[in-house]
Specification:
This protein has 221 residues and is α/β, with parallel strands linked by helices. It is built from six helices and 14 strands. Strand 10, helix 4 and strand 11 form a beta-alpha-beta unit. Helix 5 runs parallel beside helix 6. The longest helix has 11 residues. The termini are close together.
Length: 221
Amino acid sequence: MLQFHYIHHSAFTLSDGRTTLLFDPYLEGNPEGLEPSDIKADAILVSHYHGDHLGAAYEIAKANDALIISTAEIANDAASHGLRSHAMHLGGTHTFPFGRVRLTPAFHGSGIAGGHACGFIVEFGGKTVYFAGDTSVFGDMALLPRLEKIDYALLPIGDNFTMGPKDARLAAELLQAPVVIPIHYSTWPVIAQDPEAFKADVEATTTSKVWVVKPGSTVEL
């Protein structure tokens, strides 16, 4: 059993009951009022260094002795702060005790010198989850299901900083994932979107189903 807990924005956890993975832990304004001290994690995956994605990663990692998994630039920065880290880069895969991670391209700013934004495909708890990170739609998304059999795709739909609903619908078509979960929307007015309209569009035009998971909620994958 794998549980997905959506904190808000692009912050979420995956847990199999023994190990908890935390992604892009930006906590400011989350509806549960979670603070860094409330978060327990064994590994923290960071897609890029912008403040609304790095968030409280270092503070949480220090409190939990959690492993930071990210691009080499961020992993090296984490290590310089005395944290455990594992450096990867685009196209690379690594098998950890909890499962396997692939770093995927994401077309977005890295937020750190010399770096590149990324996404993650994670095999964990018997499921394969693709977290696109902050990105535009790009044609090579069509290659990802040839590399990994994706069960769940977490896609940003906010527009302005990332792809919007129409482009994310195309991403869903390219990825062919059975389930798409929209993220990175309505945190601020500039990225306000209607996830139910996105759901209707995707389900009318692709083979994917859309799960709209409210911030603060948990669903079983």
